[in-house]
Design brief:
The protein contains two helices and eleven strands. The protein is of the alpha+beta class.
């Protein structure tokens, strides 16, 4: 009986690994594990890059769609907003926004008509000023429409949308609302909305204005050149993920239905 037990024990010992064999096999196992980990990391990195690239493309196109939609309803494209009430101006001051500040991404300044509801609502009505005709009378519609301003500007790599709406002299309340930079709650920014964050990691925004929908007749859009009916804007975004740089540029072209052009 003891002989049989010793024989079984011998077979078990034969199935084990000697110290030499362990020293040979262990590095191979570690190498295999390391290779698998490297492959997993590489696949994960590629997946993150693809996902981030798709997100950048989507976000840029969404920003361009917003700008195109506002441009299509413009009554004019402005060179400057003129002096504004603090802190709603550039740099949270009274400074005017300009559409082509040297050395900085362009600023898109759109003048449009205020409405009583969403501009895409078929039941919307134009908001008129209070003079010269009395509000609520048939002649109210002969008064000038209330104009408001939309500003797309880049600050520290982020594209923002600011809205400036007259708060007095209106026959009815505009659907559009004033906005200011985050944290600004005094003066003209008391109780107003926060600027809309449109896009991050913007390194360039260039705008060209045209007198017609075709690619000719470039103009400088300002108060003395109201014939610009078409704008083309290009946006460049630079970012990185998993150590890889992502650069994407896209553009859109929009023609206002409210500007005749030349």
């Amino acid at each position: 009986m003891q002989s049989s037990s010793n024989h079984s024990l011998g077979r078990l010992k034969e199935k084990g690994l000697t110290l030499v064999e362990v020293l040979v096999v262990a590095p191979m196992i570690i190498l295999i594990i390391g290779t698998v980990i490297v492959a997993i990391v590489a696949l994960t990195g590629e997946s993150l890059v693809r996902r981030e690239t798709n997100a950048v493309v989507f976000n840029v196109q969404s920003a361009l769609d917003d700008m195109e939609g506002d441009a299509q309803k413009a009554t004019s494209f402005l060179y400057t907003t003129g002096t504004l009430t603090t802190p709603q101006g550039k740099g949270n001051s009274t400074s005017a926004f300009l559409n082509n500040t040297s050395g900085q991404p362009d600023t898109l300044i759109i003048r449009s008509t205020a409405t009583t509801t969403n501009p895409f609502d078929p039941n919307r009505q134009i908001v008129y000023t209070t003079a010269p005709n009395t509000c609520g009378t048939p002649d109210e519609s002969k008064n000038p429409p209330v104009a408001f301003t939309i500003i797309y500007f880049v600050d520290s790599g982020t594209l923002w949308k600011r809205t400036i709406v007259p708060t007095s002299g209106n026959c009815s309340s505009p659907w559009q609302r004033n906005s200011c930079a985050a944290g600004q709650t005094t003066g003209a920014c008391s109780g107003v909305l926060q600027d809309e964050k449109v896009l991050s990691n913007v390194t360039a925004m260039n705008i060209t204005y045209y007198t017609n929908p075709g690619p000719t007749g470039t103009v400088v859009a300002d108060n003395s050149s109201p014939s610009a009916s078409t704008m083309e804007v290009s946006i460049t975004v630079d970012t990185s993920i998993a150590g890889k740089a992502i650069n994407y540029q896209a553009k859109t072209r929009a023609t206002s239905v409210n500007i005749t052009g030349t």
